[in-house]
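Quick one, probably user error.
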C-alpha cells in the first residue's frame, strides 16, 4: 500500500469514527452542541448451534392462568405454555435408526402464597398440546403432539408434549416447536388467593 493510499484510508476511518460528530463540523464558522443525549446499544448473541446435539429450549420461564367465563359449578383458569423447541443438529448418519425422542411434562401441586390448601394438580390440571413449527409443508409429519389431558382424569403426571413420529433419523438436522393450552379446573368453593406450581419439561431419547 502506498503512503498516499494509507493516508486516504486513515481519513476514511476518521470519518467513520467521528460518526454523528462530523455533521457538526461541516460548513463554515463555529459550531456547538446545543443539547445532547445518549442511546445505549446492546446485543445478545446466542452460542452457535453445536453440531451433533439434541437440545431443548423454552421461550419463557413462566405462564399465567386467568379465569374463564363462568360455566357450570366449577371454576376454570386457562393459559398457554411458552413455546418449547427441540433442536437436533445431528447428521442423519450419526443417529441410530431405531431411536426416537420425546418431551414429557410433569407438574407440582398448586401452592397458595398465604397458607391456602394446595390444589392437587393430578385432580385439577390438564393441557392440550399442538405443534407450531418443524413439520414439512404438505409432507409426512416428522413430529407429533402428545395426547390431550383433561383436568380431573389424574393423567397429568408424565404427559407427552411432542415426539418424533418414527425414527429420530427423520428429525435430524431440524428444529421443532410446540406449545400447549393449559387448563386448571377447581370447585367453586376453592379458597381465593394466589397459587403457583412448576412444570418440568424433560427431553428423553430412547
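Nope, works fine. Designed sequence:
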Amino acid at each position: 500500500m502506498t503512503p498516499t493510499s494509507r493516508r486516504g484510508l486513515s481519513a476514511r476511518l476518521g470519518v467513520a469514527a467521528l460518526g454523528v460528530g462530523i455533521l457538526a463540523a461541516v460548513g463554515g464558522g463555529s459550531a456547538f452542541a446545543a443539547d445532547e443525549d445518549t442511546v445505549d446499544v446492546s446485543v445478545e448473541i446466542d452460542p452457535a448451534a453445536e453440531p451433533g446435539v439434541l437440545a431443548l429450549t423454552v421461550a419463557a420461564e413462566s405462564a399465567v392462568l386467568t379465569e374463564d367465563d363462568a360455566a357450570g359449578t366449577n371454576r376454570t383458569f386457562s393459559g398457554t405454555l411458552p413455546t418449547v423447541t427441540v433442536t437436533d443438529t445431528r447428521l442423519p448418519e450419526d443417529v441410530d435408526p431405531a431411536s426416537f425422542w420425546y418431551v414429557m411434562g410433569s407438574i407440582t401441586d398448586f401452592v397458595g402464597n398465604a397458607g391456602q390448601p394446595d390444589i392437587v394438580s393430578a385432580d385439577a390440571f390438564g393441557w392440550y398440546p399442538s405443534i407450531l413449527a418443524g413439520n414439512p409443508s404438505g409432507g409426512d409429519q416428522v413430529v407429533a403432539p402428545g395426547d390431550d389431558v383433561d383436568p380431573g382424569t389424574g393423567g397429568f403426571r408424565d404427559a407427552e408434549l411432542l415426539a418424533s413420529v418414527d425414527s429420530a433419523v427423520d428429525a435430524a438436522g431440524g428444529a421443532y416447536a410446540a406449545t400447549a393450552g393449559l387448563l386448571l379446573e377447581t370447585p367453586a368453593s376453592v379458597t381465593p388467593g394466589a397459587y403457583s406450581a412448576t412444570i418440568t419439561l424433560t427431553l428423553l431419547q430412547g
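Residues 3-18 form the longest helix (16 residues).
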